[in-house]
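Structure tokens please, single chain.
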Amino acid sequence: MHVARQVSLVDNMRNIPFEFMGERSTYWNLYFGRGLLLGVLLLTLAITLWLRARWSTLMHVSWGYFRTFPLLKSDRGQSGAVNA
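Here you go.
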């Protein structure tokens, strides 16, 4: 059950407008927009990580290769020249 103070707070957040960056807005719009943005970002992150994990299992790629710079794995016995 919602307490009367909580209900009045939400009503005030929805009904009291103010100017924010040249636009008329309410606190409710700001909180709703932030929640929506966070939800979309988390969904995008989850999809990206899922696809990366799926790709690594399909391609049998060792991610250890990507942790180090590939030029560091080149022949170190040479005089600093990189094979072209």
